[in-house]
Each structure stands twice: as C-alpha cells, then as structure tokens.
TrEMBL record:
Residues 4-431 form the FAD-dependent oxidoreductase 2 FAD-binding domain. It comes from Lampropedia puyangensis. The lineage of its organism: Bacteria, Pseudomonadati, Pseudomonadota, Betaproteobacteria, Burkholderiales. The keyword Flavoprotein applies. This is FAD-dependent tricarballylate dehydrogenase TcuA. Keywords: FAD, Flavoprotein, Oxidoreductase. InterPro entries: CobZ, FAD-dep_OxRdtase_2_FAD-bd, FAD-oxidoreductase_2, FAD/NAD-bd_sf, Succ_DH/fumarate_Rdtase_cat_sf. It holds the Pfam family FAD_binding_2. GO terms for molecular function: oxidoreductase activity.
Amino acid sequence: MDADVLVIGGGNAALCAALMAREAGASVLLLESAPKAWRGGNSAHTRNLRCMHQAPQDVLVDAYPEEEYWQDLYKVTGGNTNEHLARMVIRASSTCRNWMRRHGVHFQPPLSGALHVARTNAFFMGGGKALVNAYYRSAASLGIEVRYESPVDKLEIEEGQFKAAWCNGQRITAKACVLAAGGFESNREWLRQAWGQNERGEWPSDNFLIRGTAFNQGVLLRHMLEEHQADGIGDPTQAHMVAIDARAPLYDGGICTRIDCVSLGVVVNREAKRFYDEGEDFWPKRYAIWGRLVAQQPGQIAYSIIDSKAIGRFMPPVFNGVKANSLAELAHKLDLDASAFEATIAQYNAACQTGQFDHTVLDNCHTQGVMPQKSHWALRLDKPPFFGYALRPGVTFTYLGLRVDDTAAVRFNDIPSHNLFVAGEMMAGNVLGKGYTAGVGMSIGTAFGRIAGLNAARVAQSLSVLSGPVADEKQEHASH
C-alpha cells in the first residue's frame, strides 16, 4: 500500500481528515490537484467558522445555542436538510476550535461593525489562507505526505470498497480513502448542462463568475455518480451563490468582490425594476440568496443602488461604485433607462415609512404600498451623490454531492462503504439542500473531515468503523 489512508483534495475538509487520520496513527498521503501556490481550494478564500456556544467563549460573545443555530439553518434551507447530520455539524462546531488551535490556527478577537457575526462566527486570524497554511505546516510536522499537481481522475471500487486511485497515470493504493475534492463549480460545461437555457433563450451560467478556485472541476464527483453509481444527493443548480461585483475576475475573486450594501438601498435589474425584498433579514442570513436571484434576471445582471447615507455602514468592496450626483446621471452611467429608473426610485421613496433606523436590529423602517416590499432599513434614496454597483452571480460551491450517514461513509444502493469516506463540498448537500448562512460551509467541512479521517484510520488499522457520536468522543480525546 502507498499509505494507510489516501486523502483526495487539499482544502479544509481534506486537511482535517488527513490530520485526524495521522493523529489516530495511520500513515497518510494527500493528493492536491492544484500547484502549491494555489493549494487549499475554496478554503483559502474563507474567513470564519459558524460556532454553537451556550455562553461567551473566547472569541465569541454572548451565546448561540444549538436550537438557534438549527433554526437559522432550517430557515435558509427551507427545511431541505438532514436534521440529524445538521445537528451533528452544529454540535461539533462547539468543540473543534481547541483542536484547530493545536494545529496552528489562530482566531481574532470579535469585531464591531456591520457584519453582525461576532456572536455566531469565529474569524480566522489572517483568513482562510492562514488557516490552510497552518494545516499544511502541521501536516508536514506530522509526516503526512503531500503531492501537488496531482488530480485524481478515476477510482477502482469493487462491491462498494475502495481499491485504488489513478493520478497522473499512476495507480495509488491505500487501505482507506477520503474524498474531499470539492464540487463542480469551476466546470463551465457542467454548469451549462445543469442550468440549461431559460425562457428568454439565454444560457444563464455563461454569465456566472466563480468566487473560488479554478481547480474544482468535479471530475471525481462525476466519476463517482456516473461510473460507480454512488448514491447522490442534491440539485445540480443549487449552490452557495452570492451577488458579486460584475467586474470581478472569472476565478478566485474571493470575498472582497461581494457587494454588501444591498440591504441599505435597492436592487434593480437591467429594466430598472426592483425584484426582491432587500431588507428581508440580516445580511449574513440573506447574502447567499442574491446570486440566485440575479441569475434569474434578464442578462443575469442587476444593480445595487445606494445614496450617501449608506456610506460607512457596510464593508466596502474592492472596487469603487459608480458615482453620480443625480439619479438620471447614475442611470446613464449604468446604461439603464433613466425614466424607468427614476420612476422606480420615486415609487420606492414614496413608499418608505418613517421609523427609527437601526441597521443592527430588524428595525421598523419599511415600505408600504409597493411591491416588492422592503421589510427593514427602508430609507429614501435622496441624498447625493448616489452610487451603483453592477452585480453578477458569484458561485462559491455547488451542492450536488454524495449521500452519507453519520460515519461519513459513501453509500452504494444505500449500503455504506467499509473504507471509502467523503467530506466537504462533495457531501455538503446532505446539510445544505439550498441556501446558506455565513460560516456553515467551514463547519460542515471541519466536522465531516474529522469524522471521515478518524474512521478511515480505524478501518486502516482493522478496527470497527465509528459512528458520529463515538467519533466525536474520540475527537475530543485526540484534542487533549
């Protein structure tokens, strides 16, 4: 055998699996498809981890109990989630930080401001790139072998059991394997196939930008679903998709391209019409629906419009907004019909009800008599200069994946494999049927990466596969 445990992937979930397997005594080989400079996949673009806690806890303020976390997740997914697995993730999020610190991850003190997540999310000092680098340093110190530029294009599986992987023409064997190679968001052809053509004759995915890595082509995911008939889960059109600056690069624009002023103004499509409630809920709970909303608009483009009252109330993006001293001038610069645009803004302004504006709470500033309504933070757009940001759908990761149970085992005809496991984006659809809330992707990857790695190591050592609760217990033992 080339290793006791083979881990395929190079992001957070893969690294958690590799570290856990090595801590449990297994020899580990990790294959990362990207070059070393681009290692880490989408995890390099992350910032935080959503964490359950019953009381103030190191970098987390107040409390964020299990039931509130679950309700937040249930709401954004519309109930399209496996509650048992979701609650496993939630509970694991409360105990993983000490283990992460042991492997070199640092957390920053809570920040005040417009993010509203100091209570719910722990932020990585230096962001996701620092987290990924810390894990790779720890992997090196523990003797984990890492091979870069090593994409896996096929697996040998017999009767649901992993035998070998093929990488760059080489056959690699291991006693157990963890799949953590990401979704298919960077595969333009697969996105086009999944989204198809709309009623306007457009191919919506042609206008999508990819927030993260260019290396998540979904080769291994498709191979598992089509060649090996592994049990799948999820809708291929569902994804963590946000509204980002239309000027962002095709790949790897990351978080800094997100536009966060949506709830402080209005959003119009290219026909200068509003199409959704901009103030439905706090931005961290709603930012992830806006990519899909924009994808449904003509030309897959929209425009976030604010006035000067909003400046300083949101995290500024990397690109400056288009600035104008009048609405007519802004419409001209954004190539919108000025009459239609001014009429939309006038209708919105007339509908704004006087209230006590407070962007830190669900305030009573709302609209009345206009559709769509704006439920909170509705202030008239009347103080120049005005600003506009063109928006495109930005795909972070796709939700089509492999069905799992609480052991993280891949399933074939509803029978779990004895030695093949999956973590991260390749199985996130079990928890995220649709929607998203900030930091939950890292929670899923960390929880299931650790479970998959530990169970793979136990298999490699010819011991029984552990279930989720027992894996949690073993993880806690390992953390001490």
